[in-house]
Amino acid sequence: MTTTLSERVVSRLTRRAGRRPQASRRGFLGGAALTGAALAVNPWGYLVRPASAYDTVCGLDAGCNDGYSVFCCTINGGANSCPPNSFIGGWWKADNSSFCGGSARYYIDCNAYKGDGAWQCRCASGTCDERRVACNQFRYGQCSLEVPQSASGPVVCRMVSCTPPWQQYAGVCTASSATDNRTATHSAPCNGQDPVGALDGVTPVPGGIRLSGWALDQDQGGTEIQIAVYVDDGGRGWFPTGVPRSDVAAAYRVPGNHGFDVVVPADPGQHRVAVYAINVGGGATNPLLGTRTATAGPPAVRSPIGNLDGVTPGPDGTVRVTGWAVDPDAPATAIPVAVYRNGQGVAWFPTGGDRPDVNAALGVGGRHGFAVTLTVPPGDHEIAVFGIDDDGRAGNSLLGVRTVRGTGSPRGSLDSAVDTGGAVRLAGWAYDPDRPDDAIQVAVYRDDTGIAWFPTGGERPDVNSAFGIGGRHGFVVTVPTAPGRHTFTVFAINVGAAAGNPVIGSLTVDVR
């Protein structure tokens, strides 16, 4: 009879100790895992007493007769999950398992934390169902890598699943594989339930199909599981449950949210949809929840999006309008932008400025910024900007509204310069559009030399009528002047936001 390396090692050690090994090949566990544990826990006891490796770990009164750990569901209230005070320590698989429809069957270890007194080596539930609790002193180590080996205690129990652990426990277990095909037939009465559920609704939506229903794996009743969606026999992805379904929770007496409500993209037209529940417990399959035929609607049309970032006053009655606009239905294409002032359209222009911030935020290409300078009359104005829909189906979007005060340089006229004999009488008018009802100053230069600075204040109803303003904006002033030819220049002094004091007239007079 062929012996294993572990048996030969133990036999050699017992011969050295003057003992004949009396554990049968059946009792030896058929492998090194438990033997290694026995040697680690009580090496001298194994060598000097006529007992199996299992008895060395569990005690002489143990009745279990193989070295594999108990199924968690037999000690955890029927739940195929790690009990309290344990963690997922690793996994192995058995290939070609009939339990999983010919696919691999996965066993997931639940290890105790080292030194935790809650777990003692014993037969499961006191019934000796040929599995043992907290006896095996090893750890495969592909899961819960944050828990060091030095902090790991014995294997409390094992879960069973037909779903790969690195998918079922994503982020907890790795895909590093270990195989023990001798465990392919191991089972327990509490293992083996496939998920249940229903595909309740299949509804056309723009650009796709909406699916609703529920799915539950009773082996892990409090766990929200995944569903797999197929459209025309092509997988479209896994989606988690998580939508509240109080009716399901009440009917199965489980906590958690087991409903689903998802939209899967699909081209317009008729499609065959199938939904499967993904097993996380001991069941053999991922059962079909339902199939339906549904017609996906055409893609939704969407109005442009964007923002009016700013409306800034500039010189000489100008304002600068800036922002961005994108049509989601044509995200790489420049679109028109319309500007309204006080409810009246005043400009229509395309986007085209670089806005890398917009492109990064929306995940689009193209040039979607705009910046345009407009001229507005003095006074307060409401500026509204609209993004124009690319094809007109979804409508235009208001990007923003701002109120801005238009600025302007003073206006006026030097109407006359008359010699009065030893003096010149200057007459005219001036006002500042930024403060149209206020008197302003005018400055008089004679032959390029400033000689006077005085306010307006004379009645000029013609000016008020022409510009639609109030106030007193005329001026008449007499300045003494020596005989000879002289040139008089008059400036209007700015009081608003605009820059500069403009010349409102220049006349030459021969003084007697």
UniProtKB/TrEMBL annotation:
InterPro entries according to UniProt: TAT_signal, TAT_signal_bac_arc
Organism lineage string: Bacteria, Bacillati, Actinomycetota, Actinomycetes, Nakamurellales
Superkingdom of the organism of origin: Bacteria
Species for this entry: Nakamurella flavida
Name of this protein: Twin-arginine translocation signal domain-containing protein
PROSITE patterns: TAT
